[in-house]
Write a structure and sequence with these properties.
The chain has 313 residues and is an alpha+beta fold. The chain has two domains: 101 residues, Phosphorylase Kinase, domain 1 (2-Layer Sandwich); 192 residues, Aminoglycoside 3'-phosphotransferase, Chain: A, domain 2 (Alpha-Beta Complex), CATH 3.90.1200. The protein is 39% helix and 13% strand. It is built from nine helices and ten strands. Strands 1-2-3-5-4 form a five-stranded antiparallel beta sheet, sandwiched between helices. It has a three-stranded antiparallel beta sheet with strand order 6-8-9, covered by helices on one side. Strand 1 and strand 2 form a beta hairpin. Helix 3 packs parallel to helix 7, helix 5 packs across helix 8 and helix 5 packs across helix 9. The two termini are 30 Å apart.
C-alpha cells in the first residue's frame, strides 16, 4: 500500500470505470462508482454499488495478474481458511484503457493495523494457518514463479544487485556489515524443496480484519508456485516479541527457509529506506526498525545454527 500513487494511475478514474461497465457489463451500469478509501500501487480499485468492486491495473507489468487471479482464486478459495476476493467477471481493454481488468465481490473488513486486532499473537497464528493452507493447495498447472510474481518465489539472489547497491548507499546510515552477513546467509540457504503456492505479499495492507480477527486475504497479484520463504517476511514487518514467536512456531519451516525469509525482509526494507531516508522520516523509521529486527534475528538464530537444518528456529 502506498500514499503516493504511480504515474500509471493518471486517467484511471470513476468516469472511466462507468464507461467500461456500461460498454461491457450493462447489467451493472446503473450502480454508483466510487474510489476505495485506501488504494494500492499495482491497481486502482473502485466500489461498484455496495457489494462489488472494479479493479484496474495501473501499468503493463501488473496486467498479467488479472488473468492469473481470475483463473486461480476460485480454485484456491475452497481450501483456504479465510475469504479471498470472489471473481465475478473479467473485463477487456476498451474506452481508451489498454489492459484487462476485473469485477469482484466486495470483502468487508478493515486493514490489519494493530488497533483493529484483538490479540496480535492469535492473529499471527491465523496468518500462519493461512500460509500453511495455501502451501497445501494443489500445484498442478499453477504459475511458476517469475516475472509475473515480481520474482517472489525464486531465490532472493534475483535482487542481489539491488541489495548491494542499497548497502553502498546506506553506508554509515545502518550497520551494513551485519546486513551484508544476513544477505550472504540468505543467498547461501538455497531452496531445495518441492514447489508450493505462495502469496508473495503477505502484509498488513493485504490482510482484512473484522471483529478483531483475520477474515480475508486480498491481492494475489504476486502469487505463484515456488519457494514460500517470501511469505515469512511479515514476521519482522508486522510482528514482534511474543507475536513473532507465535508466528514462528505456528508456521514452522526449516532453518534455510527462515534465512531466505530474512533476506526478503532485508531487501525490501533496504530498498524502501534508500528511497525515503531523507524525505519521509516516518517511513524511514519503520524500515530501520525492520532492518534492526532482522539483524537481531540473524544474530539470535542465523549464527548459531548451520544452514541446512530441518527444525524451525
Amino acid at each position: 500500500m502506498v500514499t503516493t500513487p504511480p504515474d500509471g494511475r493518471a486517467g484511471i478514474d470513476a468516469a472511466l470505470v462507468k464507461r467500461l461497465i456500461a460498454a461491457q457489463f450493462p447489467q451493472w451500469s446503473g450502480m454508483p462508482v466510487t474510489p476505495v478509501e485506501v488504494d494500492g500501487w499495482d491497481n486502482r480499485t473502485f466500489r461498484l454499488g455496495d457489494d462489488m468492486t472494479a479493479r484496474l491495473p495501473t501499468a503493463p507489468g501488473y496486467a498479467p495478474a488479472v488473468a492469473k487471479e481470475n483463473h486461480w482464486l476460485p480454485r484456491l478459495a475452497p481450501s483456504l481458511p479465510v475469504a479471498v476476493p470472489p471473481i465475478l467477471a473479467m473485463g477487456t481493454p476498451g474506452e481508451g484503457y489498454p489492459f484487462p481488468w476485473s469485477v469482484r465481490g466486495w470483502l468487508s473488513g478493515e486493514r490489519a493495523d494493530r488497533g483493529h486486532i484483538d490479540d496480535v499473537s492469535q492473529f499471527a497464528v491465523s496468518v500462519a494457518e493461512f500460509i500453511l493452507a495455501l502451501q497445501r493447495c494443489a500445484i498442478t498447472g499453477g504459475p511458476l514463479a517469475g516475472e509475473h510474481s515480481g520474482f517472489r518465489g525464486v531465490s532472493p539472489a534475483h535482487y542481489d544487485d539491488d541489495t548491494r547497491r542499497c548497502l553502498v548507499t546506506l553506508k554509515d546510515r545502518i550497520d551494513t556489515g551485519r546486513a551484508a552477513a544476513v544477505w550472504e546467509a540468505a543467498l547461501a540457504a538455497q531452496w531445495r524443496g518441492a514447489p508450493v503456492w505462495f502469496h508473495g505479499d503477505i502484509a498488513a495492507g493485504n490482510l482484512l480484519v473484522a471483529n478483531g480477527r483475520l477474515t480475508a486475504v486480498i491481492d494475489f497479484g504476486t502469487s505463484g508456485i515456488g519457494d514460500p520463504a517470501c511469505d515469512l517476511a511479515i514476521a519482522w514487518g508486522m510482528f514482534s516479541g511474543e507475536s513473532r514467536e507465535a508466528f514462528r512456531r505456528a508456521v514452522g519451516q526449516d532453518d534455510d527457509t527462515w534465512a531466505r525469509a530474512r533476506g526478503w525482509a532485508l531487501w525490501k526494507s533496504l530498498l524502501t529506506l534508500t528511497e525515503c531516508i531523507d524525505t519521509d522520516q516516518e517511513q524511514a523509521a519503520a524500515s530501520q526498525r525492520v532492518i534492526g529486527e532482522v539483524l537481531a534475528d540473524h544474530d539470535r538464530f542465523g549464527r548459531t545454527r548451520p544452514l541446512g537444518g530441518q527444525g524451525s528456529p
